[in-house]
């Protein structure tokens, strides 16, 4: 009984059905085909070939076509090696179907042992059973072990006439140079979008399938140069019957509408956080993957940057005329530094999305942060702004550069300046054009910081707990004394400030209107913080587990301050080099 042939209507995946059988079918690899054709014509066929390129560019397909070309005898059985295998002779057919006894295909990714290579090398000595050449096709050859490579190398050094090797790899750098140097190398290129769209269109037509150009463009873009991926995607896209639309393909790929991603990009750059979040949310509920939206935004940032540098890049066939126009408008309007920062932040956001518990949340955080990109001044602008802010209006804006600050005499730091040196007089007369020494005490906190810097811990504690500030301006302090404040605090504070700053300070006591002291405010904040912490489920669980445990609450500011204090250099107290 003869087995029934598979019916013609049996479904085959498109990638296999339209697998190129000849070099003419192989799209986008013209350079390789030309070189091979010349070598075959001249009768200088290499002993070994190595094919490299990303997945799906046709490495194993090319290997089979070469194997067919080597062994083809033509329809009449008299032909020699050719780059145009006939496809009908016994050898061509057997190789196409992967059942030729003299063409051995192996995948090094699954068979890496030196034993397999030994088997091959043993069999190399025997002549081909039926064909002109014995052809060994080794896929992912970089996966072979060092021993396997060494065994292979011996054969490559003195190969029998009737043997040809065809290696394929996605990682050419992992193939030893000793092996590479004995192979003719072909780099299979990514298939260009135009070429890919042409290929997909031909397949769709051959299948009698209707598909929009926009849909083909999306597939070509998603396949990133891999014909196999593109064909598989086309297969899925037309599986439903009817006309495959761009919208369907977009949904299939989990892509957001590119026009809408451009809208989102626009909103973010305008700093419209609310609008941007709304648009992101709308795309999400329409089925867009938040990660893909971020990737699309990054892609747009890259694309607009490229357009800025080379406007010709807008001729990408996967773009609609509307998208092209919008891209060009953006390239003209957005400064490069904004685009560059946008790109960096998106890359970071994509990393974060990968570890975030919820991708949409991470995407929303990223969008909020990005809406601030356009407002952020560049480092240069920032320096300019800071320099501008230093000068006071009285000195006029026409100052040539920032004026140096007047040195502030510091009594207790270092040697040489005595405590009484500048006390007693009124405000020190300043040379014209110098900033006033009180400029750096815009806020009461600056005064407290000065006391801290001077390491007068006693005064610091008194000020922090005893000064309920009522009014403050640089050089003038009015406060309501706290319950523990000593009666002469105002007088001592005034004297100390005067000696440190070289300027007279008016410090006086008032009977009402004082704010809580620094210590009182800290205590209030700490108890609020403690209450908040106690309410936290984790803390409650911990307290249940360790009854009677004491809670130590530290605010972020306190933590930072503690770290700062630790980092302060020690100041020797009143160190005098002339003292014994
Ligand atoms: Zn043939």
From TrEMBL:
Gene3D superfamilies: 1.10.8.60, 1.20.272.10, P-loop containing nucleotide triphosphate hydrolases. Belongs to the DnaX/STICHEL family. It catalyses: DNA(n) + a 2'-deoxyribonucleoside 5'-triphosphate = DNA(n+1) + diphosphate. The gene is dnaX. This is DNA polymerase III subunit gamma/tau. The keyword tRNA-binding does not apply. Residues 390-414 are annotated as: Disordered. DNA polymerase III contains a core (composed of alpha, epsilon and theta chains) that associates with a tau subunit. This core dimerizes to form the POLIII' complex. PolIII' associates with the gamma complex (composed of gamma, delta, delta', psi and chi chains) and with the beta chain to form the complete DNA polymerase III complex. Residues 45-192 form the AAA+ ATPase domain. One of its GO terms (molecular function) is DNA binding. InterPro entries: AAA+_ATPase, DNA_pol3_clamp-load_cplx_C, DNA_pol_III_gamma-3, DNA_pol_III_gamma/tau_C, DNA_pol_III_sug/sutau_N, DNA_Rep/Repair_Clamp_Loader, HLD_clamp_pol_III_gamma_tau, P-loop_NTPase. SUPFAM superfamilies: P-loop containing nucleoside triphosphate hydrolases, post-AAA+ oligomerization domain-like. DNA polymerase III is a complex, multichain enzyme responsible for most of the replicative synthesis in bacteria. This DNA polymerase also exhibits 3' to 5' exonuclease activity. The keyword Oxidoreductase does not apply.
């Amino acid at each position: 009984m003869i087995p029934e042939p598979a019916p013609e209507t049996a479904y085959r995946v498109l990638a296999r059905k339209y697998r190129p059988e000849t070099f003419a079918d192989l799209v986008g690899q013209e350079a390789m085909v030309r070189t091979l054709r010349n070598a075959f014509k001249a009768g200088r066929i290499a002993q070994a070939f190595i094919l490299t390129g990303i997945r799906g560019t046709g490495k194993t397909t090319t290997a089979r076509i070469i194997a067919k070309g080597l062994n083809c005898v033509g329809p009449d059985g008299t032909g020699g090696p050719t780059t145009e295998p006939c496809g009908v002779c016994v050898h061509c057919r057997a190789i196409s179907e992967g059942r030729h006894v003299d063409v051995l295909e192996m995948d090094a990714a699954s068979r890496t042992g030196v034993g397999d290579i030994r088997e091959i090398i043993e069999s190399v000595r025997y002549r081909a059973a039926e064909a002109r050449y014995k052809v060994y096709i080794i896929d992912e050859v970089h996966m072979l072990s060092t021993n396997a490579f060494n065994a292979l190398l011996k054969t490559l050094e003195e190969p029998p006439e009737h043997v040809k090797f065809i290696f394929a790899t996605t990682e050419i750098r992992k193939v030893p140079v000793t092996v590479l140097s004995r192979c003719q190398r072909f780099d299979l290129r990514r298939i260009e979008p135009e070429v890919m769209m042409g290929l997909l269109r031909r397949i769709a037509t051959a299948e009698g399938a209707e598909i929009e150009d926009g849909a083909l463009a999306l597939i070509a873009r998603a396949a990133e140069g891999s014909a196999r991926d593109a064909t598989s995607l086309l297969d899925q896209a037309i599986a439903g019957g009817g006309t495959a639309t761009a919208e369907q393909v977009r949904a299939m790929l989990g892509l957001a509408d590119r026009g809408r991603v451009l809208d989102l990009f626009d909103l973010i750059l305008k700093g419209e956080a609310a609008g941007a979040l709304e648009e992101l949310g709308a795309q999400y509920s329409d089925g867009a993957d938040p990660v893909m939206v971020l990737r699309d935004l990054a892609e747009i940032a890259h694309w607009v940057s490229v357009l800025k540098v080379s406007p010709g890049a807008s001729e990408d066939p996967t773009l609609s005329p509307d998208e092209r126009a919008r891209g060009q408008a953006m390239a003209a309007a957005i400064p490069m530094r904004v685009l560059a920062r946008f790109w960096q932040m998106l890359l970071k956001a994509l990393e974060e999305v990968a570890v975030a518990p919820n991708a949409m949340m991470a995407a929303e955080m990223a969008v909020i942060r990005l809406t601030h990109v356009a407002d952020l001044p560049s480092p240069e602008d920032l320096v300019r702004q800071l320099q501008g802010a230093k000068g006071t209006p009285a000195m006029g804006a026409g100052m040539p550069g920032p004026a140096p600050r007047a040195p502030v005499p510091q009594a207790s730091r270092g040697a040489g300046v005595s405590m009484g040196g500048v006390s007693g007089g009124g405000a020190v007369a300043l040379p014209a054009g110098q900033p006033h020494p009180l400029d750096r005490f815009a806020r009461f906190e600056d005064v407290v910081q000065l006391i801290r810097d001077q390491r007068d811990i006693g005064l610091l504690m008194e000020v922090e707990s005893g000064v309920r500030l009522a009014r403050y301006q640089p050089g003038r302090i009015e406060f309501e004394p706290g319950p523990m404040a000593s009666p002469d605090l105002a007088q001592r504070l005034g004297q100390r400030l005067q000696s440190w700053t070289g300027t007279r300070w008016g410090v006086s006591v008032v009977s009402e209107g004082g704010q809580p002291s620094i210590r009182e405010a800290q205590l209030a904040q700490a108890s609020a913080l403690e209450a908040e912490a106690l309410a936290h489920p984790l803390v409650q669980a911990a307290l249940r587990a360790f009854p009677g445990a004491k809670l130590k609450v530290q605010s972020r500011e306190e933590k930072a301050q503690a770290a700062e204090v630790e980092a302060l250099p020690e100041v020797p107290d009143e160190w005098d080099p002339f003292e014994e």
